[in-house]
Design brief:
The structure holds two protein chains of two kinds. By secondary structure, chain A is mostly beta strands. Chain A contains no helices and eleven strands. Chain A has strands spanning 3-7, 10-12, 18-25, 34-39, 45-51, 58-60, 68-73, 78-83, 92-99, 108-111, 115-119. In chain A, strands 2, 4, 5, 6, 9, 10 and 11 form a seven-stranded mixed beta sheet that branches. A four-stranded antiparallel beta sheet of chain A has the order 1-3-8-7, with no helix packed on it. In chain A, a hairpin with a 5-residue loop joins strand 4 (34-39) and strand 5 (45-51). Chain A starts with a strand and ends with a strand. The model of chain A has no long low-confidence stretch (mean pLDDT 96). Chain B starts with a strand and ends with a strand. Helix content of chain B is 0%, strand content 49%. By secondary structure, chain B is mainly β. In chain B, strands 2, 4, 5, 6, 9, 10 and 11 form a seven-stranded mixed beta sheet that branches. A four-stranded antiparallel beta sheet of chain B has the order 1-3-8-7, with no helix packed on it. Chain B has strands at residues 4-7, 10-13, 19-25, 34-39, 46-50, 54-55, 63-68, 71-76, 86-91, 98-99, 103-107. Classes of the chains: A mainly beta, B mainly beta.
Chain lengths: 121, 108
């Protein structure tokens, strides 16, 4: 059974930083393409970033480019999202998600339970 | 980016009825790059269909999908009590991947 466990969310002031973590089990982590998808309170889903399995290439939503960095530690089966220069509109539940298939954009087949990020003064 | 528009916003139906949900794309996503997800209250989304019509593992056959190009449909043949939720379509053929705004299927 695949399990994804996120942590690291919390309350941060505008301009601040947070690092989200996602520990994966039940998969050969190093070969999987992993993504972060967020959902603002009461809103829909928004893809944020992807880290491709194999070549470790990265993809970002335009609005987070230069502020967020996705990375992984295969020895710890852990995915990260370093978030800097946070803004109020980054407030959301952040989900760690695996990608099935050959393309990094989806579909998204295993989801963690999410971790809440609130950016507010 | 490709904008996905889902309709209706809310669908009020009774258990046992048929639900038909629409997803329209601002440009073609082909026939294989469209997925559907179900999200229940306070839960993470769950993949239902991919490639427009292929059911994900463990998804019952009352869920079916069709369409290509810019127009796609999710059909739930007979609603079960556990099917009342929000449904999202998603395209993954163009960057960035995008989601529709969702259709809420509620009990009438």
């Amino acid at each position: 059974e695949v399990q994804l466990l996120e942590s690291g969310g919390g309350l941060v002031q505008p301009g601040g930083s947070l690092r989200l973590s996602c520990v994966a089990s039940g998969i050969t982590f190093s070969s999987y393409t992993m993504t972060w998808i967020r959902q603002a309170p009461g809103k829909g889903l928004e893809w944020v970033s992807a880290l491709r399995g194999g070549d470790d290439g990265t993809e970002y939503l335009d609005s987070v480019k230069g502020r967020f960095t996705i990375s992984r530690d295969n020895s710890k089966n852990t995915l990260y999202l370093q978030m800097n220069s946070l803004r109020a509109d980054d407030s959301a539940v952040y989900y760690c998600v695996t990608v099935t298939g050959n393309y990094w954009g989806g579909p998204f087949n295993n989801w963690g339970q999410g971790t809440m990020v609130t950016v507010s003064s | 980016e490709i904008v996905l528009t889902q309709s209706p916003g809310t669908l009020s139906l009774s258990p046992g009825e048929r639900a038909t949900l629409s997803c329209r794309a601002s440009q073609s996503v082909g026939s294989t790059w469209l997925a559907w997800y179900q999200q229940k209250v306070a839960q993470a989304p769950r993949l239902l269909l991919y490639g427009a019509s292929n059911r994900a593992a463990g998804i019952p056959d009352r869920f079916s999908g069709s369409g290509s190009g810019t127009d796609f449909t999710l059909t739930i043949s007979r609603l079960e009590p556990e099917d009342f939720a929000v449904y999202y379509c998603q395209q993954y053929g163009n960057s960035p991947p995008t989601f529709g705004g969702g259709t809420k299927v509620e009990i009438e």
